[in-house]
Structures are given as structure tokens and as C-alpha cells.
Amino acid sequence: MPENMHLKERPLLIEGAWEVCNQVGGIYTVIKSKILNVLSTVGDENYCLIGPYVSDNVSAIFESIDDQGDDLVSKTVRSLRAKGYEVFYGRWLVSGRPRVILFNPFNEAWKLGDIKKSYWESHNIPLLMEMIFMIKH
After folding, report:
1. What are the pLDDT tens digits along the chain (137 aa)?
2. Coil, strand, or helix at residue 60?
3. What are phi and psi of 125, to 5 degrees?
């Protein structure tokens, strides 16, 4: 595809899951098993996974890469880092070696109350505790 093609003609597929680079259950295996098929369909430059940076063993399955590229993912990683987020950008060391962005989920934990409030006030999206409260009452 031509390099000057717009994102609408060359969409970026971003897949997020708690199990990206974090083996906690069966979804980890599902994600790993479909990577080669996804990459052959959309291409490496159009696919990126997002997950948490939580495992002590993540260095065994994650390899950092340079974020100085001109692509949208690299620019986003730089922007997030400039805003103070703890973000890791690299390759998941599984078949296909897809690009991944890993976030420290505890980086913004102190803001959780404000985030929940904003979701509710702006979009009427209840989060788990609010949903339980609504069901009980």
C-alpha cells in the first residue's frame, strides 16, 4: 500500500486485553493463537495489542522497541509518555511478534473515583460497583 494512504484506507487494528503479555487464563491462548492470522490479514504495520504491564516475568516475553517512528502507534506512545503515563512499547515474543503497548494499570489508580464519575456523568456508563448498587436497589 502507498505510504501516503490515509488511515481510512489503511485502518489500524488495535486489540486490548488483560491477557496481552499476561498469562492469566484461556484468553491468553486465544489471543496468541490468532496473531499469525491477523497479521497475515492486516499486516504488522496495521496491528497493535494493548495490555497491562503487571507480570514480574514480562521481560521473558516482551522486547522493547524504539518509539521514534513516524507511525501513529509510535507517536501515541511518545505522547502518552510525555503526559506522564508509564507505557512500554515493544514486541510480544510469540509467533508473529506483534507490536504491543503495555500500560502500568496502577499508574492512575488514585484517580479511579474521578474516572468512574466522569464515565457516568458524560456517558451514563455505570461501572461494576455502580451496577451492583443499581441492581440491589
Report:
1. 445 555 566 789 999 998 999 988 888 899 999 999 999 999 999 999 999 998 777 888 999 999 898 999 999 999 999 998 899 999 999 999 999 999 998 887 778 788 788 888 888 877 665 444 444 44
2. helix
3. -100, 110
* Backbone φ and ψ of 101, nearest 5°: -120, 125
Element housing 74 (H / E): helix 72-82
Other residues' Cβ atoms within 10 Å of the Cβ of residue 26 = 8
Q: In angstroms, what CA-CA distances link 115 with 10, 46, 82, 92, 120?
A: 32, 29, 20, 29, 9
